[in-house]
Amino acid sequence: MLEVQNLAVNYRGVSALQGVSFSIAPGQLVGLIGPNGAGKSTLVKAMLGLIPTVSGFVRFNQRPLKQQRQQVAYIPQRSQIDWDYPVTVWNVVLMGRTFDRGLFSRISRQSQQLAENALQRVGMWELRHRQIGELSGGQQQRVFIARAIAQQAEIFLFDEPLIGIDKKTEALIFEVFSDLKAERKTLLVSSHQWGQDLAKYDSLLLLNQQLVAVGLPQEVMTIENIQRAYGQGISNPVKQSLETLYFC
Ligand SMILES: Nc1ncnc2c1ncn2[C@@H]1O[C@H](COP(=O)(O)OP(=O)(O)OP(=O)(O)O)[C@@H](O)[C@H]1O
Known about the structure:
- This protein is 34% helix and 24% strand.
- It has helices spanning 40-48, 89-95, 109-121, 137-151, 167-182, 217-220, 223-230, 236-247, and strands at 2-11, 14-24, 29-33, 55-60, 63-64, 72-75, 155-159, 186-190, 203-208, 210-215.
């Protein structure tokens, strides 16, 4: 069980997150949604211990998550990655196995096999010798998902994985989510994507500095909750996705 209790973050004295508490059971796919600047990335980074927190704790199976970083696969937003960095697809995926280096920093045969399987899973094996900067947005996302799969983590934190990708990659990502759920992994996916996709999550966390609502997608995505999180004006895409959720 992944537990977040009373998490708060300030940036230079200004509050970005307050009193965030939730838990996720193994095998659950949880969506983290909220407007731009709501603190979605901040929450994911705070959970990983990448930024300082003012209060709160994050535990996995009753132990601090910070002490079990190897159990967490983090798939950052594509915009946070330097795509000009000269590294091949194969080496990015092997980075998921860096904890498994033996004498003279050699990567074990088992790790190489896991990296190969992960690249096959996301349909990127043929492009393994490519530089990452030479890939499309969807292909880049597949490579980082392969790295996460190769890591064999228990918890997967995806930061906006659906931004700027093609429909085929989006379908593949949801297939990978299903596989990981079947393996009883814990999945938290931040997204500001609206539409039918929201109904695919087991539950949603609606965030705007604090948690506005938590629960089943149709319980969370009420007009009242959306207004509390997004302010008074609800745009057409938001209305459409509410209708999609109610009529699916
Ligand atoms: N390093 C930082 N220093 C100061 N303020 C920051 C920093 N990072 C984020 N913020 C601020 O904290 C708030 C939350 O930002 P965050 O990136 O977590 O939101 P988000 O929900 O992920 O947004 P988006 O959907 O646009 O990616 C914003 O007001 C942002 O400007």
